[in-house]
Specification:
- Strands 3-2-1-5-4 form a five-stranded antiparallel β-sheet.
- The termini are far apart.
- The chain has about 140 residues and is of the alpha+beta class.
- The chain contains two helices and five strands.
Length: about 140
């Protein structure tokens, strides 16, 4: 009888272990990939965006102008850029995201953007700096 209980207990433990393994595993792929060729896109145009800002003590930023328009701080617009998909080999300044809505205002049908160039002008001052970041952005849409 004792042997029978041990075999039953081992079978029960094995059944529980196998159920937990199946329920915790995922059959979803680790990564997904979308291959886009330039033949799949229609070129819309190029836009230059710019942000003028001051930086104090290396951590505090105060934006002066976005795309040549005085920034008042009441209206906050930004567009996000996936750093691995939309940047054409350019390490963009995060402040440029504040100026990217101009691309979507200029070309409302934009589906895909690529930052192709960026310039940074910095004037060093005591405990701070005045910065101007300009970026060239190409806009594309998908062919229908």
């Amino acid at each position: 009888m004792k042997l029978y209980k041990m075999i039953l207990l081992a079978a029960f433990a094995l059944a529980l272990a196998s159920c937990s393994t199946v329920s915790k595993s995922s059959f979803a792929p680790d990564t997904t990939q979308l291959n886009i060729a330039m033949d799949d896109l229609v070129y819309l145009g190029e836009v230059e965006v710019s942000v003028d800002f001051d930086k104090y003590l290396g951590i505090f930023k105060r934006i002066e102008k976005i795309n040549g328009v005085e920034y008042d701080g009441k209206k906050h617009q930004s567009a996000s850029v996936s750093l691995n998909a939309f940047v054409g080999g350019v390490a963009i300044n995060p402040v440029v995201c504040r100026a990217l809505p101009k691309v979507y205002e200029t070309y409302p049908e934009t589906d895909y953007i690529i930052v192709v160039g960026q310039t940074v002008q910095r004037e060093i001052m005591f405990l701070g700096s005045e910065n101007v970041v300009k970026a060239r952005v190409k806009a594309y849409k998908f062919k229908k």
